[in-house]
Input
Amino acid sequence: MINNILPDKNGFFGNYGGQFIEEDLKNELNKIEKSFLEIIQDESFLQELDYLMKNFVGRPSPIYFAKNLSEKYGNKIYFKREDLNHTGAHKINHCLGQALLAKKMGKTKVIGETGAGQHGLALATASALLGLECDIYMGEVDIEKAKTNVDKMRLLGANIKPVSFGTKSLKEAVDAALGAYKKEFKNAIYAIGSIVGPHPFPMMVEFFQSRIGIEANSQMKEQYGSLPDYVVACVGGGSNAIGIFNGFLNEQNVQLVGVEPLGKGEKIGQNAASIAFGKDGIIHGFKCKVLQNEKGEIQDAYSVACGLDYPGIGPKHCYLNENKLAKYEIIGDLEAIDAFYELSKTEGIIPALESSHAIAYALKLSKTIKDKKILVNLSGRGDKDINFIMENYPKK
Ligand SMILES: *Cc1c(COP(=O)(O)O)cnc(C)c1O
Output
């Protein structure tokens, strides 16, 4: 790995992470960890991954200096353009990595879950490319909401598995996918959608996403003469943020900022800001800051950006927060929507609503500083959000 912060042998980053799962699954995940650690030393695997990242995904993604926005806000604002990747976001980075690992391990199927359909779409894409069967668990409510992504996943050959219990959305889809995986792990691998879940998933996803930060560090130096003063990324589970942070964790003078969704407010149930409002707890096989009520029951998360509404957060972010290696801030729905409009109109880039949280924070920060360099991770494009915004938040 490229930074020095690795999990211990039990998969913990300080107090967070681990493997809170049954014994037989633990054995299987330990096998996956072993294969992963071998494979990332294997030249042929790395070459194949590099080839696909370059020619299938379109990496390295450029860093764009947002001249109009910079002039308007009095600082130099840059965007790492993950929105230009094939399938429109950073998720393809870890899906391709995990699918390639599955293939090398001799598995024939990948199992995943999806909320708004972005992770499912990226996983279905990687599976089609590599000839793997792909089961995507998805809540019935989400299937209705994300119809276009469901159609795309079916076109790509994935099996959509509707989940009809509980709130019929992401949290239950994860439960259902994990349940299926427990029965099918001989032939299948679970491909998680962020740096969450039991060890080694957070570490593996971080490895595949860290290419964002490695690219960004040298791009800033080579193209723009120096490193940024700030690196800003939105945080759902935390994969795009950890990806870009990786390129700068060893740099003394770069302030890393993760932006959590404040949603409609500070009450549990109104937001998805796990660092800000969560307490230590266990969700989906790992320990992290998680949104819960007084009784310790996990509560549903909310954000206008579906890709951010997870009640937990990657263990590495909990660790970075506790050790003050990164700062975590909050941005609400309406601020993010303003930023969505602002970037579209000012720079000709329609950002994903998730990424709009990071942009909103960068613009807010800009009002308090001057002549600094702010690098924002533009985790995805906004095509998927346009209909929703026009129907629910049309510009007055
Ligand atoms: C899924 C998604 C996110 C949130 O996931 P992280 O693991 O926190 O990165 C952010 N942006 C976009 C565009 C997404 O699709």
Remarks:
- The chain has a mean pLDDT of 96.
- The first helix runs from residue 23 to 39.
- Residues 89, 91, 118, 194, 234-241, 307-308, 352, 354-355, 379-380 surround pyridoxal-5'-phosphate (CB under 6 Å).
- The two ends are 48 Å apart (CA to CA).
